[in-house]
Amino acid sequence: MSIETDSHGRLYLSSELRRKYGERFHVVEYEDRIELIPIDDDPLQAVRDEIGDALDDKSREELREEALQRAKREAEADIERSRQAAGDTAE
């Protein structure tokens, strides 16, 4: 799917996409792209529904360390994918 901005920089999403994902999004900017992340009507409830009781036995410090490690792994994987993609286009 391809979408263009209008002369004011606005994006228009189809009614089908709005029904599926909602009407509020976080815009996440990366070096080579942006992503729209849907914002749930009740973000805290969405987190509770997603993780259930997974956090009950963990301290805030443990959760923070796990989140940092996961973010580091994801960033490293993104860098590796970018390098591979750059190598693919150079050939």
Strands of the widest sheet, in order across it, are: 1-2
Radius of gyration: 18 Å
User: What general outline do the C-alpha atoms trace?
Assistant: flat
Which structural class do you get from the secondary structure elements?
Answer: mainly alpha
Q: Could you tell me the mean pLDDT?
A: 87
Largest sheet: 2 strands, antiparallel
List segments where confidence is low: pLDDT < 50 over at least 5 consecutive residues.
none
In percent, how much strand structure appears in the residues? 5-15%
The total of helices stands at 3
Q: How many angstroms separate the termini?
A: 27 Å
Quaternary state of this entry equals single chain
- The total of beta strands comes to 2
Count of individual domains = 2
Give helix and strand order, one letter per element, not per position. Answer: HEEHH
Structure summarized in a few sentences:
With 91 residues, the protein is mainly alpha-helical. It has helices spanning 15-21, 43-51, 60-90; strands at 25-29, 34-38.
Mind explaining what this structure looks like?
The protein has 91 residues and is mostly helical. The chain folds into two domains: 1-56, no CATH class; 58-91. It has three helices and two strands, in the order H-E-E-H-H. It has helices spanning 15-21, 43-51, 60-90; strands at 25-29, 34-38. The chain has a two-stranded antiparallel sheet with strand order 1-2. A hairpin with a 4-residue loop joins strand 1 (25-29) and strand 2 (34-38). The radius of gyration is 18 Å and the shape is flat. It starts with 14 loop residues before the first helix and ends with a helix. The model has no long low-confidence stretch (mean pLDDT 87). This is AbrB/MazE/SpoVT family DNA-binding domain-containing protein. Residues 58-91 are annotated as: Disordered. Residues 58-83 have a biased composition (Basic and acidic residues). GO terms for molecular function: DNA binding.
